[in-house]
Amino acid sequence: MTAVEFWYEFASTYSYPAAMRAERLAAAAGVELRWRPFLLGPIFAAQGWNDSPFNIYPAKGRYMWRDLARICAAEGLALSEPVRFPQNGLRAARIALLGAGEGWAPGFTRAVYTANFAGRKDISDEAVLTGILDALGLDAASIMECAASDENKARLKAQTQEAIVKGIFGAPSFVVGDEIFWGNDRLEAALQWARSRA
Prior knowledge:
By secondary structure, this protein is α+β, with helices and mostly antiparallel strands. The protein has a single domain, classed as 3-Layer(aba) Sandwich (Glutaredoxin), CATH 3.40.30. About 60% of the residues lie in helices and about 10% in strands. It has helices at about 15-30, 40-45, 55, 60-75, 90-100, 105-115, 125-135, 140-145, 150-165, 185-195; strands at about 5-10, 30-35, 175, 180. It has a 4-stranded mixed β-sheet with strand order 2-1-3-4, sandwiched between helices. Helix 1 (about 15-30) packs antiparallel against helix 6 (about 105-115) and helix 1 runs parallel beside helix 10 (about 185-195). The chain starts with a strand and ends with a helix. The mean pLDDT is about 95.
């Protein structure tokens, strides 16, 4: 089966609706979905940005929040602007990376996005993340310790470097082989591409 890699960053606005629908649509299409958390910070820094382009370019930012409101309304998703934007998703990404190898990344990822973009919670707060893990019935203490290990930190750096090598420049991105589909609205195209090459 040809798989779709779902590359996402927890601070990314458009990754929120993508994360909430990707697993459902992939299952309906009969396509394997691989959850690939990474960090946009190093990618933006390489372009000379020290902030989200939605903050650097205010008109683009205003459009994005209105567009996201329309998308979330159509998907039946709650939306509240976060406590700050962009939030620091480093700790959450390290946890999600562990979950991707153990099968619980989808539920954790959706819960973090909901906390960020609907619950107005600080997703860099260890207590918030521990609460999410507890709610999923996971061993939060053990996971938090493993996520903070040097080995896991190196794995996330390597995964972010892999995104750069693949040519990923934003999130969400869906990768099928050497093909990149950028944006929440390209999810269906990525799934169709994967199906056509199964």
